[in-house]
């Protein structure tokens, strides 16, 4: 998440939490685990997710604690960036505590089973613990966790079962003390474009988010939107172009000046990801 500009996100990928989004006081949290998986170990990483974390998150989603979760990979490979991200979304910090507690219990149980089974037994992990398997699969020294909070969140109806969304993240750095002004400018000029795209079905969901626990100085805010396919991203680009083109040159200059006043443009970054696992409560 060190690389992500402003016009358009980790969650992403929380399309369908419509009931949550309707509560203006609700600002969901998303917990992100960034991993750098060793070359050739991608399938093993996904299998580890399926056998260790997936049962826990699916159970908590059934219980209403986890709102959505998934695994995504970058569409563009960038040296030094993470290769995989696991994310889950909850209503508040109590949800993160429940996931953390359940995951610790799951790992402890699986480790005990692995040690009892020992090496060589059919269907066992060969005595390997979850931690030792992860050490083999990924460069854990590069792991980075984030907790982000949605300041603004809008979602359309849940997508069909089997949907693996694409998401674009646009990372921006607000000038010191300009965070609240940045939000106001974005909501005035950019949010209406995305609102219409959700209403038209071109965008599944979008949001404006910040790190709830600041661990990265590369950005302060990011805007994200999720689509069912990459073709829909052309619709987003066309919508923004049409919105600006219908305005006078004077108004366009004012918009540019307002964004420049509250951001550091040279720090802006973007990223596009594709989901390889996507679980959402209420998905039909």
Can you describe what's shown?
By secondary structure, the chain is α+β, with helices and mostly antiparallel strands. It has one domain (18-280): Alpha-Beta Plaits (2-Layer Sandwich), CATH 3.30.70. 38% of the residues lie in helices and 24% in strands. It has an 8-stranded antiparallel beta barrel. Helix 2 packs across helix 4 (130-137) and helix 5 packs antiparallel against helix 8. The protein is elongated, with a radius of gyration of 20 Å. 36% of the residues are buried.
Portion of residues within helices: 25-40%
Outline type: elongated
How far apart are the first and last residues' alpha carbons, in Å? 30 Å
Computed structural class: alpha+beta
> How would you characterize the largest beta sheet?
8 strands, antiparallel, barrel
State the total count of DSSP E strands: 8
Instruction: Provide the residue-averaged pLDDT.
Output: 89
CATH level 1 name:
Alpha Beta
State the strand order across the main sheet: 1-3-2-8-5-7-6-4
Spans where pLDDT lies below 50 across 5 or more residues: 1-24, 120-124
Number of domains: 1
Q: Which CATH architecture? A: 2-Layer Sandwich
Count of helical stretches: 8
What's the helix and strand layout?
Layout: H1 18-22, E1 29-35, H2 42-62, E2 66-74, E3 84-90, H3 93-117, H4 130-137, E4 144-155, E5 166-172, H5 179-189, H6 191-200, E6 205-211, E7 221-227, H7 231-245, H8 249-262, E8 269-280
Antiparallel strand pairs: 1-3, 1-4, 2-3, 2-8, 4-6, 5-7, 5-8, 6-7
Helix pairs in contact: 2-3, 2-4, 5-8
């Amino acid at each position: 998440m060190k690389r992500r500009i402003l016009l358009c996100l980790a969650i992403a990928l929380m399309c369908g939490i419509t009931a949550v989004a309707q509560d203006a006081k609700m600002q969901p949290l998303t917990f992100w685990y960034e991993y750098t998986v060793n070359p050739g170990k991608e399938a093993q990483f996904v299998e580890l997710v399926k056998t260790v974390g997936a049962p826990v998150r699916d159970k908590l989603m059934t219980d209403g604690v986890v709102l959505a979760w998934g695994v995504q990979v970058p569409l563009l490979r960038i040296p030094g960036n993470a290769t995989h991200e696991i994310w889950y979304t909850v209503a508040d910090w109590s949800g993160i505590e429940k996931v953390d507690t359940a995951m610790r219990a799951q790992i402890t149980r699986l480790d005990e089973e692995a040690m009892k089974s020992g090496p060589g037994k059919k269907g066992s992990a060969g005595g390997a613990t979850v931690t030792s398997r992860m050490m083999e699969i990924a460069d854990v020294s590069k792991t980075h966790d984030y907790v982000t909070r949605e300041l603004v969140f809008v979602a359309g109806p849940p997508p069909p079962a089997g949907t693996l969304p694409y998401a674009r993240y646009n990372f921006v750095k607000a000038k010191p003390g300009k965070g609240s002004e940045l939000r106001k400018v974005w909501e005035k000029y950019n949010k209406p474009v995305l609102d219409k795209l959700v209403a038209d079905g071109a965008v599944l969901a979008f949001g404006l988010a910040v790190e709830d626990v600041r661990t990265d100085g590369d950005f302060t805010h990011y805007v994200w939107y999720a689509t069912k396919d990459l073709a829909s991203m052309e619709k987003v680009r066309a919508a923004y172009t049409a919105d600006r083109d219908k305005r006078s040159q004077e108004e366009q200059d004012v918009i540019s000046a307002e964004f420049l006043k509250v951001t550091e443009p040279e720090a802006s970054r973007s990223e596009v990801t594709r989901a390889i696992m996507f679980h959402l409560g209420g998905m039909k």
